[in-house]
Design brief:
The chain is mainly α and 88 residues long. The protein is built from four helices and no strands. The protein is flat, with a radius of gyration of 16 Å. The two termini are 28 Å apart.
Amino acid sequence: MANNEWTLEDYLRNRQQAYVNYFESPGGKVLLADLMKFCRANESTFHADARVSAELDGRREVWLRIQQHLQLDVTSLLKLYSGATGND
């Protein structure tokens, strides 16, 4: 299939594979460990200063996107990014 004929599902499958290929490599695992700390993967992003809290939320959003691509299947990603709720 030519690139200009790709469906959203094809695009997500390709992108997910790129995430998996990189982050499951030895170098990717080192980077993922660093990002886990930097993005506050397992910590609250609350801060009394709203600007700091917003920055921490942004970092965490990056972490969540990476995790979506590493842990969800393509069908789940398709639902997530197409706005489907599963009740459709």
